[in-house]
Amino acid sequence: MHGIFFEEISHGGEGGLYGELIQNRGFEESKIPEGCTLDSGFLVPPRTPHYSAGRVVDWKMPFEAKNDYPAWSLATTGGAVARLALDLSQPLYPETPRSLRIDIASMPRTANVAVINEGFWGISVQQGAAYTLTFHSRTEKYNGVMTARLVSADGKTLAEHVFERVQGSGWKKYTATLRAHASDAQATFQLVLSRPGTVWLDFVSLFPVQTFRNRPNGLRPDLAQYLADLKPAFVRWPGGCFVEGISPQSAPNWKKSLGPVERRPGTYSPWGYWSSDGLGYHEFLQFCEDIGADALYVFNCGVSCEMRSGVYLEDAHVDTLVASVLEAIEYAIGPQESRWGKVRAKQGHPEPFPLRYVEVGNEQVGERYAKRFNIFYKAIKEKYPQLEILAAMGIAHLSQPTIRAVGKMDIADEHAYKAAGWAMTYADWYDKYPRKDWRLYVGEYACNAGVGAGNIAAALNDATFILGMERNSDLVTMSSYAPLLENIHDTDWPVNLIRFDAGRSFARISYYAIKMLNEHKASVNLATQVSAPIDTVTPAFAGKIGLSTWDTQTEYKDVEVIQDGKVVYHSGLIRKEDWRLTGGQWEVRDSVLAQTKAGAWPLALLNTKSFDTYTLKLKARKTGGYNAF
Ligand code: AHR
Predict the structure, then answer these.
(1) For residue 302, what are the CA distances in angstroms to 45, 245, 322, 463?
(2) Which residue ranges run through the membrane (predicted)?
(3) Which residue has a Cα nearest atom 4 of ligand 1?
């Protein structure tokens, strides 16, 4: 039952699980994701057809690439005159066209010019540890040495290698092992130049020699070990919203995450930063195998993240998408004589990987998705009957009349982010679910509101929730907590299972609750009664629709109003801008109203305030909890 769910969110992979220590190693991170535009520092994805009919505020996010070469800077001393520029003129590889150009106009004898990478909020350097440095450089206009250094926050050199012979034309690859003679958790990488001239740099990579299971291009050992110790039955990846992409064009493409890492163009995560895709399709399958877990691959079915833009690729593109996922499956489990099995074998893995599940999209709902799902289901089942195929919408959606269009499916993936006390109040939640020709995968669950960044109350809620799933294991056959990993310097989500910075990592209490329950599975169900006085365990309703505690986010998904144990109102997506609380009453935009059928509201419409704003009175107040997001 218990698996894990990995997504590129809060730098869980890039600057997290993936062992690379250099941020923006290929200088590709200033590019605008395909299909999006930049508007005064904000990234604007294509418009959502669903919303463009209304007057909902368009979604846009600050684009984090503040300059042309994020995470890189220049330091000059002793009167040296130098500058950095992004260069696209002579790419190392066409797929990754950007490089960094360093022009040093003048350099007195005692001067210094250093090109600096800050790592992922510092580089944690350990005394005695060795680091593999690789970079590519063009030096035809430079006649000096290059000194690579790891430098502590207070300016001390922790490791050094001097490249003496750097002349020649065209791109050249340089490698060295840097061994640290002292430690610092906040170190930087520096490439120091000694003479005036011009130098081009590309793909600067620094890896600890020791990675998880010592795989090249491998994983950060402490984080990977946390995951292995959970003994997950399966690993779901790569998302989450990440799968959906900020626009259909920029959604992840498994083929582009294969092969030489220098040639992978990267994927823009809807969480606001670039992934280098060094931790790509092959590496994930390898990780699953390394920790003895089945692989659950989630692929994009031609629709971008509904929270962001929700744009559907036209149906005409679906055949191409189907062909692509069949190829991805062949790469994972096809015989080594097959076209993609051959590619896998060439990558050093002739035997099939443990791919057991595939999921069609992430958190998509509605009739259009259902129709699309059916196409994928048929094509995949015909060729790979042994695979389990998951629908990205839950049973709650499947039971809705408009969405009955889903034909056959193996497992429904339903997500369950809950507020403090919810699991106690609704301890019998899954007991009441309809049993039909389906199984349920709770692909994302967590108690993540009213529990700070995750405390003992969260862990007790999660444990209670897990007991509810286990008690209904005829129906709920798989589960995974979300999100898994959080770099504390770039938090995209309020509560996460394992937190870390460049050098340290810390699993929350919920991690140990999941581990304990996974290691001690129940073999018998005893009748249980849970009594939890609603008023004390459930926060009052007013002012909480959309959970105002989560202030960094402007949209809320799957908001449910629950009255006497029943979901009386469900909204797939609302945004903070759509609602406001005035004098104890809610106001909502008509475009939101239009999404719900008349009579479906637990709220009474009182009066019209303006052209697109109504005042609503919340009748559901204090009736027993809410379901967050
Ligand atoms: O886990 C965080 C996000 O929550 C996922 O990306 C998405 O699937 C869900 O809405």
Answers:
(1) 15, 10, 10, 36
(2) none
(3) 240
State in Å: Cα 241 to ligand 1 middle.
Answer: 6
Among candidate residues 399, 406, 400, 376, the one with its CA nearest the CA of residue 389: 376
Q: Which residues are near ligand 1 (CB < 6 Å)?
A: 7, 9, 239-241, 362-363, 415, 444, 482-483, 493, 557
- Please report the atom of ligand 1 found closest to the CA of residue 629: 10
Helical residues (DSSP H) of 394-552, grouped into ranges: 395-398, 422-425, 456-471, 509-519, 534-537
What span, in angstroms and rounded, lies between the C-alpha atoms of 459 and 415? Answer: 18
Give the span between the Cα atoms of 186 and 125, in whole angstroms.
8
Please list the ranges in the chain whose pLDDT falls under 70. Answer: 47-60, 66, 306-309, 396-404, 531-629
Supply the residue whose CA is at minimum distance from atom 9 of ligand 1. Answer: 240
Alpha helices for 198-305 (secondary structure H): 221-229, 241-244, 281-290
Domains, the chain: 4-19+31-64+211-519 (3.20.20.80), 72-208 (2.60.120.260), 542-627 (no CATH)
Alpha carbon of 563 to those of 483, 549, 587: distances in Å?
Answer: 28, 22, 20
pTM of the model: 0.86
Residue 588: per-residue pLDDT: 55
For residues 366 and 402, the answer to whether their CB atoms sit within 8 Å is yes
Element (H, E) at 51: helix 49-52
